[in-house]
User: What shape does this take?
Amino acid sequence: MRIIVQKFGGTSVASAEGRERALTKIIKAKEEGFSVVVVVSAMGRNGDPYATDTLINLVKTIDVSVNSREMDLLISCGEIISTVMMAQTLEKAGHPAVALSGGQAGILTDQNFGEAQIIGVDPKNILRRLGEGNIVIVAGFQGMTADGDITTLGRGGSDTTAATLGSALEAEVVEIYTDVDGVMTVDPRIVPEAKILRNLTYQEVCEMANNGAKVVHPRAVAIARDKKVPVKVKSTFTEDSGTLICDGQSDRVITGIAFQAGIGRVLVKAKNGHLGPEDSVKIFKVLAGAGISVDMNSISPGQISFVVKQEALGKVGDLLLPEGYEVELLPHCAKIALIGVGMQDVLGIMARVVETLHKHNIKLFQTVDSEITISCLVLEDQMNQAIKVLYNEFGL
Ligand code: ADP
Ligand code: ASP
Ligand code: MG
Assistant: This one.
């Protein structure tokens, strides 16, 4: 059996027109001889009746904190509604289709509600339905625990469902259909003239996704990479051939730029001027104990700096001030990452980054780099400008 997995994101399945577009992609794959597994997201974006954010906001109208188990049960409905709408669209066009929840599709997860990890897949139900000649529509973003509780996989998790099923079913390809033509050098919402990247390695896309390029979920890319399942990112709304992600070598100096807003910076100094290794250990242990994840860590004699999610900034102050440290908190920052496997062999990239930002009066608060990424912390207000000037500087 030649299997293809096609995933359609929220904007793709939001309207009857979008579902008709999706239908043409599904039928084409079927006519090419594939057994088709379709993964769908919840319909639309915040404000649309069955979108994930709408459901979250709905329950928040009851003014009490929501148990994460109940929250997952609620938001899993968005994807389930979407499977039935898609299955009925196919049935109407004369193509037998079956809708399955994540649990019915055999996706087993741990009990970490809201961010559950997939611990196993039993594809026998999907395979039986495919064998009977159906197109199988699976609700993305969800699974089921061994106890039968419904879980969700973290925001953007329908991509993870698609990659997981692609890998478990040994699919020939996983196609991620969305509202852009493919993976671009930078988010086209910030730089409309951004160019499409036709071929990318898993490593390049993982790095872009981990640094905030939400066009595909980083976990999905990692799962596909482990089983070497090729992934195509394409538009539901055009005939563009999209981006092919597979194994291979890249020598691009800068592949693209990714970014994350909503970040707060923390600078810790000792009140008496001394801040030693024992302080670093203590500070990072206190933060880890409070479940706060840190990034862009920099330790130098007398001071430590790092970034956290904006919403954790207040808590960091509450934890560290009583310990006697001098703490400076800078809210509303953004991290911009330039990603390129080839940059490790080229001198002068850092100098160009710093010079470009400086030339445009963009204040740089901190940088970190790895062999394939240079990340810069700037103010959120200057983020778009910083992305554009770096985009131009590197001719992306
Ligand atoms: P879906 O609902 O289809 O999963 P998402 O909103 O999760 O869609 O992802 C698609 C969006 O990702 C695009 O609309 C685009 O704005 C954004 N995006 C961010 N970085 C990139 C990039 N490098 N290339 C293409 N799109 C990007
Ligand atoms: N509907 C979920 C979300 O909005 C999952 C997804 O779209 O991938 O995060
Ligand atoms: Mg997405």
Observations:
- The chain has two domains: 3-246, 256-393.
